[in-house]
Amino acid sequence: IYVVFFYFISSEERHLRANDREYNLSFMYANNAIKTSKYNVFTFLPLNLFEQFQRLANAYFVFLLILQLIPQISSLSWFTTVVPLLLVLSITLAKDLSDDITRHKNDKHVNNRKVEVLINGELKSEKWMNVQVGDIVKLENNEFVTADLLLLSSSEPLNLIYIETAELDGTLIKYTISILYISGEVRCEPPNNRLDKFTGTLTVRGETFALDNERILLRGCTLRNTEWCFGLVVFGGPDTKLMQNSGKSIFKRTSIDHLMNFLVMFIFGFLAFLCTILSIGNGIWEYKEGNSFITFLPRADGANASLSAFLTFWSYVIILNTVVPISLYVSVEILRLGNSYFIDWDCKMYHVKSNTPAQARTTTLNEELGQIKYIFSDKTGTLTQNIMTFNRCSINGKSYGEVVDFAGQRVEVTEKTEKIDFSWNSLADPKFCFHDHKLVEAVKSGSPEVRAFFRLLALCHTVMAEEKTEGELFYQAQSPDEGALVTAARNFGFVFRSRTPETISLVEMGVPTTYELLAVLDFNNVRKRMSVIGCIRCPLNSWRSPQNTLIVRVTHGLRTLALAYKDLDEDKFEEWKERHHEASTSLEDREAKLDAIYEEIEKDLLLLGASAVEDKLQDGVPQTIEQLAKADIKIWVLTGDKQETAENIGYSCNMLREEMKEIFIVASNTAEEVREELVNARKKMSPESGDEPPIEKSRFLGKKSQVVEDEKVNGEYGLVINGHSLAFALQKDMQLELLRTACMCQAVICCRVTPLQKAQVVELVKKHKKAVTLAIGDGANDVSMIKTAHIGVGISGQEGMQAVLSSDFSFAQFRYLQRLLLVHGRWSYLRMCKFLRYFFYKNFTFTFVHFWYAFFCGFSAQTVYDEWFITLYNLIYAALPVIGLSLFDQDVNDRWSFQYPQLYAPGQLNQYFSKMAFARILLHSCYSSLILFFVPWAAMCDTVRDDGKDIADYQSFALLAQTCLLIVVSVQLGLDTYYWTAVSQFFLWGSLSVYFAVTFTMYSNGMYLIFTSSFPFIGTARNSLNQPNIWLTIFLTTILCILPVVAKRFLFIQLKPTINDKVGSTVPPPAPRKVPRRRISTRRSGYAFSHARGYGDLVTSGRFLRIPVKTRSALFPHTDTPVADSTPQTYRTIYEGAQSP
């Protein structure tokens, strides 16, 4: 086994030589061309048709066409099936062609990009698609990376480069180390999708060097602030890690899609049932009455009643084919596409500051936006801005940052509050804001503690500085926290100017000072602190650890950092340094050994003070969460932040509230303790809940599912659970207990969770609850839950575009989520349900009239309508009005949707379209068809014209029946329309006008003379429609069909009104605007630094980096508000008991 495994790995590894195309081509590696398109000129038509005929409805109509070509079966002309089928196929063909042409253009644009390649010792410009594995390419600043490259050299000091990987993994800063060889042989791992790992070796002149991920530059990155670099192509085109990660996305289908598939299967069975009844009727009729007609309708040889019944079955399959909705799927796609454009075009979801519109990245999930029950949200960058500001600090026991008036009372800081003037500091950042003048006075007065505090902030970090012009400093930091702290030190007179691997240069109150950097004790998620050891280059020659970060608890709900220092003895430091070197070069347990070494020196520190930075909430977050909660949508926050930080954000954004009965904290370290805490919490919320979860078992198409039903809870509760406890709670034997307890709570916060745990939580709710889930995030670590949820929403923020690229919908701010759900989502769901109800109603009514007519025509498969009416009914006469209804209808406008978020509830309960609603449509269609057949039949029976001539012929009856049908379904559509637009009016009246125009044209003498066999209804229209009794019959039929609908709606409004009825009957007055008092939280908060391992090793190794100039965004934007965006969503408290808005 071991031998086989080793052989497999070695046979899959990649061999290549630098700049040796002949050798590399012998391995037949993929070139650098990419292909995302599905078709080409030759495969488009056959492949697309093959895909379309995999749809059951399309394949069924091809089967019908074959039946219609059999003379013994068909009583309908072939064009009644061919015309609708061709139209449906053509629309889908055109849509797929347009999409694939776009993909071809994108591929061509990428493949034809130019890059310089080293060929025969000269740099030549080549297209990307012509680059081969083993080529050496030259990249210049701001260029996209051509392929996965092994870096060889760069223009920067120590051959470092700076790359932006936001398009790849969400990271904005990445340091990559290059090597100085341009020839040799590389052996490395085969193509894979692991972005964070690379294994290989480079052999040069008989010497072998290890290669890792730090020396690889991936396709999808952008070269920044580096004039040039050379790289060796390792993977090209489809083998690159970017393309390996861009596999097929999970195909998401809505609950309505699943229901439609079930209903289509039911319709097939129902069609077979109807045809069986009619074929049995034909057999009985042929047996009893058939002999009477043999004289003038002779039977074929061997024909009998049984054979006639068999053929009749297939004849009625053709006649009643309209019960199977061939145009259903195409109409649904048109409807979804239109509603997607409404999202794209919504100016009220356009973010002015970032020039980012809302985008519907998929067109198949719109109506599910109106059924969301659970929202899973990231915190940093989603609820917050991920832009840190230095808010306050505590130095030597004294707090700074609060603004007080002359009476000593605290004053709330606003944009009008006087800011500190930093004009005395020529290197200050003009965008930095602070309001407490006492801190500046302490710095200027020479307070040693205050100056030491800011000196520590300026020294202990991994920030990179660049100064392209004198006095203009630009900082690039691993985390926004570091950037905020170093900028604060800069403005208060301790300016971080530059660094080398051995030194850090500051300007302290105008005096240039250089510190020797002796060691960096890097931050990691276990130690949760960082230290630096250095000495100032001056006669004092003291050894000092300028800063050590600790985890402490302070007030005001900010992200906090404690600062401490101590003097070190030189001899002890040298001895510690030797042991540190041994630990850092250890091949086993290196990290544990380093942590132990760090712990030795990070003791007995003198606490100097603490800093606090604020990650501000995005505009409108608390109000948005309040509105969504009123719509009975539960929000769970899944974040990697510490418990105290996440808990405080929960209070800040109104998820957790003081008026909640209790907030449960689950933070145990064993599985049994976690179970006990979850059970105790559940028992407190619902004492009568049993030990076993209330599970509803269901089976659908052979697939078993277990759904945990909701349990009643008195009052509101919250739940906070950390990642360690969550790992136990997600175990198979405990996950239902977690689900029961969490779903009883109004708000759930999961902190310190990994990306995998985020996806597991979403999958748990998705699997065991009858609910639609939505996940929203802004970073690469949110991609897993975005793809797992029914709906994924990406926010284009500070953490790159990976979340957006993986999402179904995207926008710039969390507050737009309420408009996406409460307006667009609810409208889309309402329109889709109305469309399906009306679509099935008009088709079933049309088909049932054929069924009743069979009892009067000897079950002979005779059609009750004209063949041209059958062909055009679903294509023209009844198609455009329902499209107009489904695209433009609104029960209430967007303002009322915000005013009454309770209107969202029917979508969560599937009240507008379900199996029960389908059954009601079936009964309604049956009643309407009875009226549409028997009333015209009774009116035409033994009836004469005004001049005494007979009018009771088949053609006149057919014209009357089809006219009554079209008018009834049109009036029914008018009753279902809440919001009339010019387009809706045009489609409805235009369709009726087209019907009469086409009818008089087709039944004219001219058409009969030109196409005698195709237009036999000569003169029927003008002879029938000029009779008053015909129009009276049409009016009576319409009244009888519509009256029960109107009566039912009136009674239900009076006796059992829905939320829509209550809102529709209310004219709301403007509610008083309640301005909530700003809550000063005393919750615990978390440390400021990032949870990822820092770049200390890189800084001290000499592999440092120059940082590019970037424009710093304003800390207090003036346009990033609902008012500036001209949005109508006025965030305020909405009372259910209010009379009106």
From TrEMBL:
UniProt key word DNA damage: no
Disordered, as annotated region: 681-701
Enzyme Commission code: 7.6.2.1
Catalyzed chemical reaction(s): ATP + H2O + phospholipidSide 1 = ADP + phosphate + phospholipidSide 2
Family matches, as SUPFAM superfamilies: Calcium ATPase, transduction domain A, Calcium ATPase, transmembrane domain M, HAD-like, Metal cation-transporting ATPase, ATP-binding domain N
Binding-site residues for Mg(2+), renumbered to this chain: 378, 380, 778, 782
Domain P-type ATPase N-terminal, chain residue ranges per copy: 17-82
Cofactor(s) the record lists: Mg(2+)
GO cellular component: plasma membrane; trans-Golgi network
Single Gene Ontology MF annotation: ATP hydrolysis activity
Segments traversing the membrane: 76-94, 262-285, 305-330, 835-856, 868-888, 921-939, 959-979, 986-1010, 1030-1047
Protein family according to the UniProt entry: Belongs to the cation transport ATPase (P-type) (TC 3.A.3) family. Type IV subfamily.
Stated name of the protein: Phospholipid-transporting ATPase
